[in-house]
Amino acid sequence: MARQGALTLLQGVRDGASLSDQAGALKALSPSDQARAGRLAAETLRHLAQADSVIATYVNRKPTPQVADILRLATVELLQLGGAAHGVVDAAVNLTRGAGKRGQAAAGMVNAVLRKVSQHEGWAELPPQRLPDWLRKPVVATYGRDATKAIEAAHQAAAPLDLTLKPATAALEGGDTLPTGSLRLHGPVQVSALPGFATGDWWVQDAAAAMPVRLLAPQPGERIADLCAAPGGKTLQLAAAGANVTAIDISAHRLKRVAENLTRCNLTAELVTADALEWRPEIAPDAILLDAPCSATGTIRRHPDLPLLRDGSGIPDLVALQASMIDHALSILAPGGRLVFATCSLLPDEGEAQIAAALARHPGVTVETPALPGIDPAWITPEGGIRLRPDYWPERGGMDGFFMARLRKPA
Ligand SMILES: C[S@@+](CC[C@H](N)C(=O)[O-])C[C@H]1O[C@@H](n2cnc3c(N)ncnc32)[C@H](O)[C@@H]1O
């Protein structure tokens, strides 16, 4: 059942739907089969190029897209996940037989190809899957070829689960406390079964995603606006620090997630559905967090479907939106207040260049670069921001790609 589910997800991605948007497609499966289907599909997407190169060694004629997905799924299960040949090949043949007339005709070929694939040597030596050209070009231009390869290698490893703990919460057993303060758990875990979930002692948040609020350094009682808040990981951090938080998001639907997260964690914030470009508070905030909409190219470890679903065409509009959001945020911020701009992007246009342009548009605004625990000085950019990359902390399991900078408005 899980394999059929994974196949449905892969086909959905081919049709343009993201893995997370397809949760409803697996409703008929048990929760554990849904989770397994999601893991299988994600692992297949992380190794499509390697799977295709191995399969190409053994097929004579190009299979239909559906049969190609069955072959890819089984190849990844065999060579990446160490699945037992007999079970994986039989399951793939059954899936092929169920795929209409053309599938029935292909069942013999799938059986023969996968038996050879199961004996294939050299999988571990294959180079990591490359980013698509629209993304690879700017990444190579920014970080160089070696770093790009390291980023691609990091994308192949599934992301560990990071938790942000409420202040004074004890670390969970078996977790590693990271230098930046997040708690990292390894291996598949059922989040809702972990101790402290029901009591809201922590929330799931990648170690890199937890850094913008640490850079903002919220103080108890400060009035802080979180301009793009949903699903709310950073709102929770701000509220847990004792700030007086207003969480704004354009999506009422996504703000519901913020409300649910706040309730579970016994934290409070004022929630406002609004366009951040138009929202004007009666009292100017002491600080603003602007975790702006972006290409999300720093999150490919978690979203291996992203390179297949995007072509980069939306990025100039996002860059323009981010610049307008920075300008508006500075206009509503209290004099002397601080603004943290952050994006989960690998692209400097959505990070370093955005800050350089903002400084040129706003004379008097400065960048502050406080020393933060766990932040390597090499990660500080010439503009004074912090650049985080998926290939950092390779021995610990990596982190999402992020950029953040703290701006100070003149008093
Ligand atoms: C990167 S996500 C924010 C993640 C969030 N800060 C967190 O830590 O969980 C960007 C958010 O911006 C919201 N958004 C997009 N355009 C917006 C706008 N014009 N005004 C307010 N929110 C917007 C999206 O709905 C999305 O929830």
TrEMBL record:
Record-stated family: Belongs to the class I-like SAM-binding methyltransferase superfamily. RsmB/NOP family.
Organism domain of life: Bacteria
Molecular function GO labels: RNA binding; RNA methyltransferase activity
GO biological process assignments: regulation of DNA-templated transcription; RNA methylation
InterPro entries: MeTrfase_RsmB-F_NOP2_cat, MeTrfase_RsmB-F_NOP2_dom, NusB-like_sf, NusB_RsmB_TIM44, RCMT, SAM-dependent_MTases_sf
Catalytic residues in the record: 344
Native source species: Paracoccus caeni
Protein name: RNA methyltransferase
UniProt binding sites for S-adenosyl-L-methionine: 228-234, 249, 275, 291
CDD domains in the cross-refs: AdoMet_MTases
Pfam families xrefs: Methyltr_RsmB-F, NusB
Boundaries of every SAM-dependent MTase RsmB/NOP-type domain copy: 123-410
Keywords, alphabetical: Methyltransferase, RNA-binding, S-adenosyl-L-methionine, Transferase
